[in-house]
Design brief:
single chain, 225 residues
Length: 225
């Protein structure tokens, strides 16, 4: 197994359950989801976005490579909005939810679907299990998100008439940010030892499944036209 095939193998696993191929996201892109369903989704997903920096932090902490820690620290700083003039990504997501008509209190008080809780738990478990496991999970998520963000913006603008930039900002940021983040993960995956590669691939596959199941959980409670 070559170094390159680590990220390629995760890409292959992700493709089997890519978020963009899920019927829920396809319905969003086609404008077949009622606005109330998007609100339900926004309330659920906020809790994953809020928990996500802790997974990045765990991978950063476990990284044995100084240069790798520096790259992951830059990723974490962006998630947490540490740079001057930048907002943390949970706040950006809250802007999206509120732009759909939600209140911050309602979002924070939302009871989680079992699939949402499982996604958060899976990310936390994989990122704390080992460096290779956390890195594989992180890559499986961030490698998908630029395409997802672009598709969501297109659906919101073209199908729902939502053009308010604060409401779209989370997705605008992730169109570009996760291109860089996934490239960082790809470079670090290339440095894994032979024994670590299989663990990273397995974690990437498991995380892709948890993301897919999260969408299925929201869809099961939604009305799709």
């Amino acid at each position: 197994m070559t170094h390159f095939s680590v990220s390629a193998a995760i890409d292959s696993k992700v493709a089997e359950r890519a978020m963009l191929s899920h019927s829920f996201y396809q319905a969003w892109t086609e404008g077949r989801l009622p606005l109330g369903t998007l609100r339900d989704y926004a309330r659920q997903y906020f809790h994953h976005v809020e928990a996500f920096p802790r997974a990045v932090s765990a991978v950063h902490s476990a990284c044995p490579d100084r240069d790798g820690r520096r790259m992951l620290a830059e990723n974490l700083a962006e998630e947490e909005g540490i740079e001057a003039g930048k907002q943390d990504h949970a706040s950006l997501w809250m802007m999206f939810a509120c732009g759909l008509g939600e209140s911050a209190d309602a979002v924070r008080a939302q009871d989680l679907n079992p699939e949402t809780a499982a996604l958060i738990d899976t990310f936390r478990r994989l990122s704390s299990r080992s460096y290779a496991s956390g890195l594989g999970a992180l890559y499986a998520y961030e490698s998908q998100f630029p395409g997802v963000a672009s598709a969501k913006i297109e659906g919101l603008v073209d199908r729902y008439g939502i053009k308010d930039e604060p409401t779209l900002r989370f997705f605008r940021v992730h169109e570009s940010a996760d291109v860089e983040h996934s490239q960082v993960c790809r470079e670090l995956l290339d440095r894994l030892s032979h024994d670590e590669r299989a663990e990273a691939i397995a974690a990437g596959e498991e995380l892709a499944g948890a993301l897919w199941n999260f969408l299925s959980g929201v869809e099961a409670r939604a009305s799709v036209q």
